[in-house]
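Page 47, continued from p. 46.
Same chain as before, 174 aa.
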Amino acid sequence: MSADTSDDRQSRAESFTLEQRASLDLRRADQDRTLSAVHQLEAALAAAAPGREDAWRGEVLSTLGVLDEATTEEERNAARPDSLLSDIARSQPRLRNRVRGLRTQYRHAREAIAAVRRELQEPDAHVEVADVRQRLAALCSALRHQRARESDLIYEAYYEAFHRDLLDDARGLP
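Result:
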């Protein structure tokens, strides 16, 4: 093995600080928790509703509560001063607006969740199942889109900072 290869590996190992690695792990855990909540919501939305609207509404409300908790935690962690997004905004000024945009998307998604929860919690309100399904499907799609945009931003920031592909580094490839 050449000295350059050894130096490259050592440099890659040092690319992320321990704090940055912890932030990346926290981000992954947040996104996994949110994605799990999205899957639960989708399953509840797909359940039969005719003749059992109250049960359907209750299950959708329950899974919306899980999604609300997951997105609250994800938004809180992303806004922390030591988060990966904060680190990108601080160290790469060119990407600050995209970080701001992602944080705005978190807020919009959380507001949409809260609005539908309020609507479904009204005990005497008529709920149009198809409308709720469509609105929440759009929300789930927006959360997936946000996840992809955030991943793209992190990879772009990493590549710009270290001139290396993050996936190759994670696999230990030269």
